[in-house]
């Protein structure tokens, strides 16, 4: 499907003098960006619109967004070229190989973590934010409306970038029009088990963009498959291709799941899992599993990471492959808030005839879901016990690692019940399990265990011990990257502040800010600057506080975050003794990402009380991790 970028004339009828003027159509030029969602093509489109077909046959991440960005480049080439040169690593993720000789995004920003059921992706925040900025700046430079056709068939990852652009435009006070058509049309390839979540996501998109919801779903299109431009697209296309050999489809489905994990493409991962399970169900050949291994070796690039443990070693017999697909579906359900469905998926994996190590891993995921999502801590420990019981039958070299992960989850349950002595016992046992192991997954667990030990000591208010434990990372390696150093220095500073070591804390907060600066990371620069502003404001050092809040505002605007901009403006006003909150209020009213925090700040501003505003400003913490909700859908 080719992109369309063309001008259209407005079909507005001429009025006779005696007639009342009609109600302005939804695409009339508003005082701010107006977002309209249509189920079909309106009779009239806005004049001189940038029109783009964003529909895709397969839910490949960035499929629709790439079309939008190409249209932006045609409409405002200098804007897009400047932005791509300023963010080459992100641009290369959108357009593989577009810019030579730049760092891989994986060297700069963090991914989700499957073992910890942690869905936050710093990488995808950077990518989608750059894309959103390109859209906003194109609308500003061109002064033209943007019409996105085939919106209901667009991949959700791309729509999240457009959602981000809508909020950013409100912060900027950008006048313009954003029109979606075909919102209820479904693509020919979609995950059946994800259909209800997709509809909920489309409703959430409308809410975040302040557009009325429209009925969904509607008809299924006959859109043809597009040529893949990256590995994810290639793998998904092979997975759905009935003409391919069964083993090739299964291998491609597993590889597609791994790729979709990193692009936070939940619908694509579910589709791949469904396709893989369907192929396995339709083929009873006992030799299929061995052929899957051969197909994998042909398709795989050799990539492996503990962020998601899907590699050559993950493959096994047909029952193990079924369990792998069930596990992957469970993880996606957790990430998308369908927690009951996640437990059912992990349970389906346990129903397969699989080795005890895989049984233990699935019990670990069930325990973690019960802990983090349901808060059912005794039930979680029952799952841990079941996993440990399974491991008693194991003679695999993998046994100790699986036990370590189970005990790590058990420690978390005791920690959440504030039974710190019990938590410490489990952490020590977990460390004994992996102390002599040095593979990537074991190292991943060791990092978690050191961190958790420090958190236990912090909770017990043993700040000196927490600091000593945390500084063990400095002894493990001198070659941690800048991104790790950013998080390490921030937590060290937070612990020092809690311990009363104020000067050391400020120095390390400042180092963390410098690390973020070296990465071009405005998200965390904003966080750290705002919290330093609050720290100096609390210490009645208004001039220094104003300086840090001004930096926080600069970076909040750089990432297009209305709430953070409002907080930073409010902090500057309080520190400078000003009582004009109007710009802070305007920015807060533009926010749709964090309703609870936004309402709290707006309530403080509405009081006109500097003390209330002061109390609403963010304080320093001991962990830098923050949700990337500006690009998340729930």
From TrEMBL:
Domain of life: Bacteria
Positions of the UniProt region annotated as Disordered: 1-25
Protein name: Conserved domain protein
Naturally occurring in which organism (per UniProt): Myxococcus xanthus (strain DK1622)
